[in-house]
Amino acid sequence: MRKSIIGRQSLALVTFFLATAASGQLGGGGQASREDGPREWLAGDHHVHSEFSAGWQPDPAHPEAAPKPVLGGDSRHTGLQNAQMARRFGLDWMVATDHGGPHHSELNYRVAWPVIEDVRKAVPDLIVFYGLEFDTPGGEHATLIMPRDPSERENLRRIEAGYAERDAWPTDPARDSKPRMLEALRMLEGLTPRPVLLANHPSRTATGPGLWGLHDPEEFRRWMDVAPHVAVGMEGIPGHQAAMPAKGRDAAHGSRGLYGGYPTMGGFDQMTATLGGAWDAMLSEGRHWWITAGSDSHGHHSEGGADFWPGEYAKTWVHSRREPADILDGLRKGRVFVSTGNLVTGVSLAVAGRPVELGSTLALPAKGPTLLTIELTGAAGKPGMAVDAALDHVDVIVGSVGASGGIDTHVARQFPIPRASGKSDKVTLQYRIPDFDGEIYLRLRGTNTKQGEPDVDVPGEDPGADLWFYSNPIFLTRD
C-alpha cells in the first residue's frame, strides 16, 4: 500500500505527479469478483469527499499559469479514513466523489485512482466505487459513478477533462451551458458499461417553494430524455445535515443541507418532500426518476464542519447482491429507499401475495381491490446515529400516471405505529389498494415525528429528532 499517498493531506500536485510517475504505480483495474446469491439490502453513500477535493493556489508571479491544487483544501479526510468510517457506520458500499478545478482530471487520474485501488485492498469488505462530483455545465453538481471495470480510470478522465465546467485552463465559458451538459450526457449514454449520474442537492439554489435556481424539474426531464440509462435520479436527502448556526456563518452555512434560499423539509430537498411537487410530477408522467441520499462529507461536525461521516446519519439502501454491477443496476432501476438515523433498514413489499421490487412495474390481471403487504425492518442494532428512534407513523402515498386532471398524488393511508412496535425489528402493515384504471404508483414515507407533512427545517434544530424514510415507488397497471 502507498501509505505516503493515503496519509498525506496537503501537498502540491506537481510533487505527487513526479513521485507517482517515477514509482510506476499507476496500474490496476479494480475489477471486483462477481458473487451469486439472493439480493439483500445494502447501505451506501454516493457522495463522499476526500483530500482530492483540493484547494487551488494561484502563482502571483505567473497569473497565466493554472493554479496548483493543494490537497486537503476542501476536505482533509483521506480515502482510507472515509472507508474506515463508512464501515464503522454500517455501509456496504461507497462512492469517492471529489470535485475539481483546473486540470483536476489529471489529479484524479494520476493520484486519486491509485489511492482508490489501495483503499479497496485495505478495506475489502467495503465496495468502493471510483467517481466524481461532476461540475455540471450550466448548473451545479451531480454524482457520477463509474462501473467497476478496467475502463473506469480512463473513462472518468475523458469525461472530466472534456466536460467538467472547471477543468479547463484557461477557463472556457463555452463549457458553462446547459446544451453542453446534454452533450456530456450523450457521451455518457454511449459508454459501455454505462455510468450512473445523480443530481446532487437539486434545490440548493432555489429561493422559495418552486422558485428554482440553477436546476429545475424540466432540466432533469431533458437529462432523462438524452441519457435514460445514465441520468436516473437525484438526492432526496442532501448532505451537510449537521450544519448549525455559528458566529460568522451566513444563513446558508448555518442551515441543514447548506440550503440558504429555501430550507430542507425534514432534511429532504423540497423536490422530494413536497407532496404532489416536482418528484411526484415526474412520477405521474411515468418517469422512473429515483431518489437517493448522500452525506456530502467534507468536514465532520466534531471538527467544525457541517457533516456527518458516511453512513452516520443518512443511508441509501439498495436491494442488491454484493457485487458492484448489481448495486449500480439497483440504483439504475430504483431498487432503493433512503432513511436517516437507521429509522428503517429494510423494506419488503408484496401485492396480492406476489413479492415486488421497489422501482418495478407490476401488471395486475383483474379489476377489484388488491392487498399490499408492507414489511419494514428497524434498526436491529445496526450502527448509525439514532438506534433508539421509533417510527411514529407510515404513509402510503398514491398517485395516478397520466391522469388528465393533473397530479392527484395524496396520502391514501396513514398507519400509526405504537412505540413498542416502532422500535421492534419488524413492522408489518396491510393496505387494500382500491380499484383503479390505467396505471398508478405507490410509495412509502415514515417518520419518528408527529408531523403529517414534513415541516420546513429551522437553523439549529436537532437532525436526530427529525428522522424520515422514503421509498422509491412501485408502478401498478391493469392487463
Would you mind describing this structure in some detail?
- Keywords: Signal.
- It comes from Novosphingobium mathurense.
- This is Phosphoesterase.
- The protein has 479 residues and is α+β, with helices and mostly antiparallel strands.
- 22% of the residues lie in helices and 25% in strands.
- It has a 15-stranded mixed beta sheet that branches. It has a four-stranded antiparallel beta sheet with strand order 13-12-15-18, with no helix packed on it. A two-stranded antiparallel sheet has the order 2-3.
- The model is unreliable at 1-34 (pLDDT under 50).
State the distance separating the first and last CA atoms: 57 Å
Helix content: 10-25%
Q: What low-confidence regions span 5 or more consecutive residues with pLDDT below 50?
A: 1-34
CATH fold field value: TIM Barrel
Q: What is the second-level CATH architecture?
A: Alpha-Beta Barrel
Q: What's the CATH H-level homologous superfamily?
A: Metal-dependent hydrolases
Distinct helical segment count: 11
| Average pLDDT taken over every residue | 90
Tally of strands: 21
* Rg of Cα set: 22 Å
Which secondary-structure class do the elements indicate?
A: alpha+beta
Domain count: 1
Characterize the biggest β-sheet: 15 strands, mixed
Q: Hey, roughly how much beta strand do the residues contain?
A: 25-35%
